[in-house]
Amino acid sequence: MKRYIRKRYCGPEGLEVVNIPTPEPAEDEVLVKVQATSINPADSHTMRGTPYFYRLMLGVSRPKNPKLGADLSGIIEKVGANVNQWQVGDEVFSDILSVGAGAFGEYICVKQQHLVRKPNGISHQAAAAVPLAGITALQSVTSNGSLKPGQQVMIIGAGGGVGTFLVQLAKHYGAEVTAVCSTGKAEKVKMLGATEIIDYTREDYRNCQKAFDFIIDAVGNCSASTAKKLLKPNGTCLLIGWGGFGHLISYILYGWWIGLRTDRKISILTAQFSTADLSTLGSLIEAGAIVPVIDKIYSFKELPQAIAYQELGHSGGKVVVTLSNE
Ligand SMILES: NC(=O)c1ccc[n+]([C@@H]2O[C@H](COP(=O)([O-])OP(=O)(O)OC[C@H]3O[C@@H](n4cnc5c(N)ncnc54)[C@H](OP(=O)(O)O)[C@@H]3O)[C@@H](O)[C@H]2O)c1
């Protein structure tokens, strides 16, 4: 089988394809034939070892684990002796970033409880677009208490992998969405459920005259003071995008001060993998409430180009890599 690895921290051009024996599942594992994977900014952070403090976990001078890749959709090819949840031929999807098994390979072994049934009626390519971005979006709109119908929500970075899920989920929970995106993404984002668009290439959302119950920043450029200005009393601003170390520190420090002195809440979300949340997303997809939005599909051979494209930071939905001929 083929797998992408990196022996040292590098850009996409430094990835190597290795030919290795197909792994055998342990007693509580299944062997999955990966049909599709998708690219996330987290893959770049892991590949490059940036921001540098990540290396305290990943390995200081070189990565401890050469494997990469979070999202996968695939078909179970073999099951371990103690596997009772799955059978050969079952279609599954997951985000395996936290277990480091590496979705950028033709086959992977995963513990049975880490997988979720792939939603019916969508391709593996569409399913692979869901896990990490979808779970982040779902946890964003359900953290701090779910969104309530009629609430005003601003989503910054609405046209991206996480943003396209955020718009649809906020709309699904009954919120009125003001989306911040670039000109080329405005139509698509409106179709996904935004009622108002702020085209950031023409106007600055910081000057918006409206007040919001909830701001979700999937870019990392909303300062705590801007959030304080744009939030309604009891409103919350949630930072999920990486806007650099300086932004993070000032957001935390000033956000803490704002939290003490006002009734606004300034908070940060780090998404955690959850099979329950992924199942919820699968059900919402099957019910037609949300759809995975795919920007581009690359072949397995083109995976480094897919990462390079994603790293430009202007994806219109998810960047998917297919290993099947769907
Ligand atoms: N906290 C967590 O647990 C967590 C989990 C997943 C992802 N993330 C982070 O969330 C961020 C978004 O991830 P993603 O997967 O959605 O990335 P993505 O697919 O690359 O999307 C980023 C989007 O932001 C838009 N954008 C860029 N500059 C903008 C600006 N100034 N104003 C508004 N929109 C702008 C881009 O397109 P246009 O410029 O063309 O509009 C693009 O659509 C990343 O920083 C990622 O690291 C965090």
UniProtKB/TrEMBL annotation:
InterPro entries, A to Z: ADH-like_N, ER, GroES-like_sf, NAD(P)-bd_dom_sf, YIM1/Zinc_Alcohol_DH_Fams
Entry annotated with the keyword Transmembrane: yes
Taxonomy, superkingdom: Bacteria
Annotated Enoyl reductase (ER) domain residues: 11-321
CDD domains linked to this entry: MDR1
Transmembrane segments: 237-257
Keywords: Membrane, Transmembrane, Transmembrane helix
Annotated protein name in UniProt: NADPH:quinone reductase
Organism name: Roseivirga thermotolerans
